[in-house]
Amino acid sequence: MSKVALLIIDMQNNCKESTSCKASFEKAVEYINEISQYFRKKNHPVVIIQDIEGGGPETEGFKYVEELVVSDNDFFVLKTYSNAFWETELDNILKSQGVDCVVISGFAVEHCVLFTYNGAVERGYNTFLLQNGLAGYNDDEIKRIQLLRSVVSHEALEYFLKETL
Fold first, then answer.
1. What does the pLDDT read at residue 164?
2. Are 69 and 36 in contact (CB under 8 A)?
3. What single DSSP character describes residue 57?
4. Is the Cβ–Cβ distance between 35 and 45 less than 8 Å?
5. DSSP one-letter code for 99
6. From CA 51, how far away is CA 146, in angstroms rounded?
7. Can you tell me the distance from the alpha carbon of 54 to that of 14, in angstroms, rounded to the nearest whole number?
8. Which positions ≥6 away from 38 have C-beta within 8 Å?
9. Longest Cα pair distance anywhere in the chain, in angstroms?
10. What is this structure's pTM?
């Protein structure tokens, strides 16, 4: 049986402040929360990824948005580059958990989400974007990128993960 991880990228205060697409950001957070709770219930890893650019861990902008549901059992990864696999422990965490498939969500679909998607594919993971769980700087660009990459819905994830513990 495959083990699937949910990656939640850059759902941070400074990211929410920097986008003009606040409504889609808030909708993405809601959707991510619903999916992450399902992943946790089924014992699949949830990884919270935070970008240290634009302020370090001690700044208010660095913190994940208060609407985001997190758990003490989640994995937390700090990144400096757009690709969350580059010079981080993300790949080691996923391998240690037996993960062979990742579902990527978060901000910004035009940058960090897309680069992390490519990084996952390059490392041999089955890789999907979370439909409705993406935010960015431009709503049309979010839709365009979803058309060009493998996307999975909440309903499909529930179906495929229902047999897992």
1. 54
2. yes
3. T
4. no
5. -
6. 22
7. 8
8. 154, 157, 158, 161
9. 41
10. 0.94
Residues with pLDDT less than 50, the chain: 165
The confidence score (pLDDT) of residue 163 equals 60
Given a contact cutoff of 8 angstroms between Cβ atoms, the answer to whether 146 and 140 are in contact is no
**What's the per-residue H, E or C state across 27-52?**
HHHHHHHHHHHHHHHCCCCEEEEEEC
SS3 content of the chain, % helix, strand, coil (to 5): 40, 20, 40
Determine contact, residues 142/135, Cβ cutoff 8 Å. yes
Pick from 73, 72, 66: which is nearest to 13 by CA? Answer: 66
Cα–Cα dist 26/40, whole Å: 21
Question: CB within 8 A of 29, min separation 6: which ones?
Answer: 11, 65, 67, 68, 135
Cis peptide before 135 (omega within 30 of 0): no
Pairing of strands 101-106, 151-152: unpaired
CA atoms within 13 A on the CB side of 42: 22
